[in-house]
Amino acid sequence: MPALSRLGSAEWEKLKNRAKKKVKDIARELIGLYARRKKSRGFAFSPDAPWQKELEASFMYEDTFDQAKATMDVKRDMEEPHPMDRLICGDVGFGKTEVAVRAAFKAVLDGKQVAVLVPTTILAMQHFNTFQDRLARYGVHLDVLSRFRTRSDQGGIIARLGEGGIDIVIGTHRILSRDVAFRNIGLLIVDEEHRFGVSAKEKIRQMKAEVDTLSLTATPIPRTLHFSLMGARDLSVIATPPRNRLPVITEILQWNDDVIRDAVRKELQRGGQAYFVHDRVQSMDEVAGRLQAILPGVRLRSAHGQMPAHALEEVMMAFMEKRCDILVATKIIESGLDIPNVNTIFINRADRFGMAELYQLRGRVGRSNAQAYAYLLTPPVSSLPRPTVQRLQAVEEFTELGSGFNLAMRDLEIRGAGNLLGAEQSGFIENMGFETYTRVLEEAVRELKEEEFKGLFEKESGFRAQQREAVVETDLSAFIPESYLQSEEERLAVYRRLYALSSNEQLEEVQKEMQDRFGRFPVEIQNLFGMVRLRLAAVRIGFRKLSVKGNLLEADFPPESDTLFYEGGTFQKIMSMVPLMQKKSATLRQEGNILRLRVQLPGIQNPGDKVTKSLLLLEQMRPAEHAVKEEGTG
After folding, report:
1. pLDDT value at position 223?
2. At what angle do helices 96-109 and 65-78 cross, to 10 degrees?
3. Which domains does the chain have, with CATH numbers?
4. For all residues of the chain together, what is the average pLDDT?
5. 222, 358 in Cβ contact below 8 A?
6. Which residue from 196, 211, 237, 261 could staple onto 200, CB 3.0 to 4.6 Å apart?
């Protein structure tokens, strides 16, 4: 059980500083890699040609806003003179592959070759079909390099790559082998990089330094994205679901012959197909036999990674061409397989799967506008460990499209955050909580950008006081009473939202929502909202701590190392006000290593006045141009 410490206390500051130092050591290397890439010279692709616009216009679906923005981000990066390294994150079926197709075509139009790297042979075949369908009419030469190809075929593909006879090659880690050489590679597309081994990742890292790289991920685990979210690499998020897409109805149940029979028949009657996932190769034949017994006449085939390549390819082609009704498979179908006709999936012994695996597997269905169903088959729930039940319930609960990040946060709550940055950070996360840890993480990265990598990120400079943290202390009763909101979980959720707010507009939205849901606010909640406003005001100015007690306001300035604060207009404005405030019993003095401003608040009639008068005083300390910039950032 971690020891508790007061926010703002010396012990808390020590814990934060230890975590920040450790994070900086890791972040320094990652940002350094980013810096070297930004400074290196790459190929600047040409602006869009007419064929590029024609390809994008021929997409059979309407682009979502996020998909269109991701496409623009990628093309803008490709036209820059340094190598691109962009990560596109989006839920399963949200259109990441189409963005990759457009980027690949842009590279080909400029005479460059493209390598599309995927973790599985089945996904390689799937991507090949997608790219071929979109690009064949433009005379683009594509091929697949994986174990599905014979040795002689692989030799021929490698020779043509070296001669420039292949524009786009799609394959597994075989692409990274020493004997594979490109004549003029210009773009590397990596699908689900986290699924590759250490040696493959090292080769990918080496290629990134010289070649434009586009990474795709649907895995909703925050630690794989966190440095992108903080600006240590480029990120595009596709969070908008395609139009007419329905959430997958998910149900946890024990094996039941009648339920399975009815669900399969219902799917087949509407012309669909089904997956049955069983992740034990040794017992797959037994499971397939049991299914065949309860489903006589249904065409059923099995597929797993230990099958010979030609046999696996034959089974997959039969399923894709609808010559098979049910595919009994291991989790080899987990990544990227896109068959819109399949809208029912059974996951046998779902208790053995991780949350991300269950999420990805469920994403294999519901990829059209038909209602999809996912059945998680488990032993009796009473016999399962509590974390397993929580994991399954979370997958069942989060069925809404785009809920991957919510699901991942629940995963973190259930099992802890693990290695957020690849180094052992779980101790810090356990001691201060994941959300506070991520704030320390953001602070550490920002300090590195402003100090050690200032030249690289100079475009990001400007008014950024609102990214800081501030602690507020008060003698007011400021909390959410149990009589107002009985659910402990809901109270905690509201506290979290209030803690994460970055503007008064966001606070007003929370206030409206709470009043609509729970009714008129008692005085304790009004005080709590006042504390949030004080914190936001302190953050905007740059104060690290505020204390509002009795009729006294105390504000602690940031440390001397914060040049952004002391060289900016805010500090100058406060200094110009101090002589005037001294007439109102104000003092500014150094106490140890802290510069502290004390101001007597006049005319306090009731407890609420101290918040109102403190906010008025803090507002006067903000230079006008800062207020304008903040409004502009929304």
Report:
1. 44
2. 30
3. 28-238 (3.40.50.300), 252-400 (3.40.50.300), 462-633 (3.90.1150.50)
4. 79
5. no
6. 196
pLDDT digits (tens, 9 = 90+) for 415-450: 433 333 333 333 444 444 445 555 666 666 667 766
Residue that the structure tokens 């599905």 belong to: 148
Calculate the alpha carbon distances from 365 to 168, 240, 403 in Å.
Answer: 28, 18, 15
Judge whether 103 and 78 are in contact, CB under 8 Å. yes
pLDDT at residue 37 in the model: 65
DSSP β-bridge partners for residue 253: 377
From residue 523, how far is each of 141, 408, 507, 578, 607 by CA, in Å?
A: 70, 36, 17, 33, 10
Spatial separation of the C-alpha atoms in residues 169 and 157, rounded to whole Å: 9
Which pLDDT score is estimated for 31?
66
pTM beyond 0.85: no
Alpha-carbon distance of 438 to 300, in angstroms, equals 48
Q: Are 55 and 138 in contact (CB under 8 A)?
A: yes
Give me the pLDDT at residue 162, please: 94
Given its phi and psi angles, is residue 336 left (phi above 0), alpha (psi -120 to 50 degrees) or beta? Answer: left
Residue count (the chain):
634
Three-class SS string for 493-551?
HHHHHHHHCCCHHHHHHHHHHHHHHHCCCCHHHHHHHHHHHHHHHHHHHCCCEEEEECC
Short-list 95, 17, 106, 20, CA closest to 59: 95
Spatial separation of the C-alpha atoms in residues 460 and 84, rounded to whole Å: 19
- The parts of the chain modelled with pLDDT lower than 50 are 1-8, 220-227, 229-230, 232, 401-434, 460-467, 625-634
Whole-angstrom distance, CA of residue 27 vs CA of residue 43? 27
Q: And the tokens for 264?
A: 């399969």
Q: What gap in Å lies between CA 273 and CA 329, rounded to an integer?
A: 13
* pLDDT single digits (tens) 292-330: 999 999 999 999 888 887 888 889 889 988 999 999 999
Tell me how far apart the alpha carbons of residues 239 and 216 are, in angstroms, rounded to a whole number: 14
Token pair listed for 306: 């230990």
316 vs 323: CA distance, rounded Å: 10
- DSSP states of 373-426 as a string? EEEEE-S-GGGS-HHHHHHHHHHHH--STT-HHHHHHHHHHHH----SSSS--H
Angle between helices 386-397 and 404-415 (to 10 degrees): 170
Show the CA angle centred on residue 108, arms to residues 105 and 112, nearest 5°. Answer: 140
Nearest to 617 by CA among 604, 630, 632: 604
254 vs 166: CA distance, rounded Å: 50
Phi, psi of 236 (to 5 degrees): -125, 130
Paired tokens of 139:
């005379």
C-alpha 254 chain-centroid distance = 33
Query: Looking at residue 234, what DSSP letter applies?
Result: E
